[in-house]
Amino acid sequence: MFFAQVAPDSIVTPDIAWTALVPHLVLAGGAILMLMVWSLAGRWLPRWLPSMVTAAVGLGAAIGSIHLWRRVTDADRGPFSAVADSVGIDGFSVFLTVVISLTVVFAALLADGYLRRERLDGPEYHVLLLLSAAGGVTMATANDLIVLFLGLEILSLAVYVLAGYHNRRAQSQEAAIKYFVLGAFSSAFLLYGIALTYGATGSTNLVDINAYLRSTVLVDDGLLLAGFALLLVGLGFKVSAVPFHTWTPDVYQGSPTPVVAFMASGVKAAGFAALLRVFVVTFGTYADDWKPILYALAVATLLVGAILAVVQNDVKRMLAYSSISHAGFMLIGVHAASADGTASVLYYLAVYSVLVIGSFAVVGVVSGTGDGATTVGDFAGLGARRPWLAFAFTVFLLAQAGVPLTTGFFAKFYAITAAVDGRSWALAIVAMLSAVIAAYLYLRIMIAMWLEGSDDDAPIRVPVGTVVVLGVAAAFTIGFGIFPEPIVDLARDATPALVNSP
Amino acid sequence: MELTTTWYLVLGAIIFAIGASGLMIRRNPLVMFMCVELMLNAVNLTFVAFGRELDDLGGQVSVFFVLVVAAAEVVIGLAIIVAIMRHRSGATADDLSVLRG
After folding, report:
1. The pLDDT value given to residue A153
2. Chain A residues whose C-beta sits inside 8 Å of any chain B C-beta
3. Residue A368 in contact with residue A257, Cβ under 8 Å?
4. What's the pTM value of the predicted model, to 2 decimals?
């Protein structure tokens, strides 16, 4: 009998270390529980509750990661893998798990006032946000290319819907379809890259791939290099590296502003997690082959992002292009392919997430009902109308420009240091040039806010959740800009590791 | 003539290319979704071919994951299309051009 070849008792189910999966379980479980509770008892629950619950769940996931951080930084125990080696827990993945969980907290707080103003309230936004974060965490902890792909899809599918969440706004729907088509396109490329890598190395497990590439000299590595290229296309889309950036401005402009805040922080963090783990860590032995491509991507991303940002008139589009140029700085860290480079990307992701969430928090309240007033002219006279709002935005813009005494300065500093240490002088110079060009754009918004007058005296309502986000983000930016050591040390300790269970 | 693994890989590459070019050329959102499916299934064929070549079950198992993801992707895509068509019936990808800078 054909079927008799496999005896029933030969199927071994893996041991699941549930403690290693606490952040995943908290986020996904929170989402499902919320969906259930609100579909059964939603009408009796207050309208502010979903965002509070989501913020609590995000915070819970971050706190649930602390015991993992203790374990992986403990010299005796160290990094480990779980669930049949498909999930790898190391300092790197725990650090990014915390970053992604905290972006959820911020995005949920921002959404509260926004959704009520736009009359879109309901728990669905928050459920999708939590599911998307669960996907992001899965990506950050993936120890297997297929798990990485699953995480990417869980993350992306939820964000496609979130992009079109403003169902009465044509721009939002257009953003959703554009993001969906290009996202699905890039996912297919990523998947093809996974298939080719699997064919070339015989495994989808990152540890096995790494071991195979170390121990074997491939006579014909065409298949593997094609796999690299396709993986780079797929991940390049997700982190919006030029030339795969075309969706970014449209999607950022059209999507609801709190969703954009999450896209630019949490989604980007997950994308860079995958890029670092796959290329720097797993394909490290082939660095000579992929570094030139990443060099070109970094240069193009830095320059195109900064130059096109300057010619925009819509603040959301400007911030979209500026987020592209920031991705260029992070690509420098990936290109360095060193421990310092990885630490610089982690530090950049942590502080940039806070900056971009703060920036979009301001844009979200200034844009007014309908979420449409986002041109530079709409920010004119903000300094006179709402001084504190304008002050907070100024802090975030200065930090994005890389002014000293803000977190943004050290982020750029470490990225450029990583390039210089890797003897990529030209790349460092291009990065500084890009920072100079982008400074013009931030100044342009600041001049509109503080120096230009406006006859628009419509009141700008700042919801409580947004006030909290702005306060925390501004305090973080200035506080850790003056005393950067704690975050830098955490980013340095968050080293990636490749381990399978013995 | 014997069909080796290479044949299947080449077929997969051709189908993937057809899907990718179709996605860029066609303007009907539904046809664009079908092209995405074509790309994903080309990858499935590649996975199975490699799994057979390497005598490894992993390739075939991956296909199941991809199938589930593809189904979920279609559900989301169709939902977005339905939401758009409610406002403008018969829209093609060229009609969606409010966002530009």
Report:
1. 95
2. 146, 149-150, 153, 157, 160-161, 164, 167, 170-171, 173-178, 180-181, 184-185, 187-188, 191-192, 194-196, 198-199, 202-204, 249-250, 253-254, 312-314, 317
3. no
4. 0.93
Strand pairing partners for A375?
A314
* ipTM of this predicted structure: 0.94
pLDDT: is B29 or A412 the higher one? A412
Residue A438's pLDDT band (boundaries 50, 70, 90)? very high
Amino acid occupying residue A358 = G
Average pLDDT over residues A393-419: 94
Query: In the block, which residue shows the tokens 């460092």?
Result: A428
Residue B29 has a pLDDT of 85
The one-letter amino acid code at A438 reads A
Supply the pLDDT for residue A10.
Answer: 67
Mean pLDDT across chain A: 91
Element of type H or E holding A81: strand A80-82
Q: Quote the pLDDT of residue A2.
A: 46
* Nearest residue to A232 via CA among A161, A323, A301: A301
Chain A positions touching B97 (Cβ under 8 A) are 174
List chain B domain ranges. Answer: 5-100
Q: Which residues pair with A81 in a beta bridge?
A: A88
What is the CATH architecture assignment of B5-100? Orthogonal Bundle (1.10)
User: What are the sequence ranges of the domains in chain A?
Assistant: 14-493
Torsion of CA A289, A293, A294, A295, to 10 degrees: 110
Which residues make Cβ contacts (< 8 Å) with residue A363, sequence separation at least 6? A257, A315, A316, A319, A374
Q: For chain B, first and last CA: distance in Å?
A: 56
**Amino acid at the residue A223:** L
